[in-house]
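example protein:
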Amino acid sequence: MPLTLEWHDVAVRLVLTVIAGVLVGINRSERGEVAGLRTTLLVCLAASVSMIQTNLLMTTMGKTPSSFAVLDLMRLPLGILTGMGFIGGGAILRRANMIKGVTTAATLWFVTVIGLCLGGGQLALGMASLVLALITLWGLKRLEFQLHQDRHATLSVGLTADGPTDNELRVMLGGAGFEVRSWSVESRKVGNGTRRKVRCELGWHARPDEFQTPPVVDELTRLRGVVSVRWNA
């Protein structure tokens, strides 16, 4: 960080900060995230302006070399970086077993660091970080959708006395590519017969964009003795 700062240096830093905040913010807005273009840009600008202000205060005229330790100007950017942790935490939402907003929180944290770099005059480091951020958010997103992830669902099957046995159901599910992770059976008497309800937790690997109901659900409904099938993914 240079000790003397001209206004054209401030202009260059602010322009690069706006470019960085807009490019990263466009990605967040395209994803429909709550922290979109304006939020990302403001966070990046806040970090950059804090470093510019710190730079402007770092004058040595009339001060001893130990003045830097006395002033402790780095408290301002460090406080902003710490505060961003709380804002990022507020962007994380949890619904049942699904957690959303982690990438948005990490993005806000990262653009804060980019703003600190650009505001502090480390232009090459800040722009290199911007390129890496764009590659991560746009480029790796496509790769992420090609990777198979661990998925899970709950299957409930209502059976009469002449329905398939537990072993037959397990074989059928295993042949469809599912891993049975839990199994429970509830039996009750209905008239002169009995009814069973089998509930199992299934696991498998699939791409993130594959949400269709598996064919095995329709196959189960066509079996003799199967009165109900419920699939909850």
Summary: The chain is about 55% helix and 20% strand. Residues 7-30 form the longest helix (24 residues). The chain has two domains: 7-146, 149-232. The CA atoms of residues 21 and 41 lie 4 Å apart.
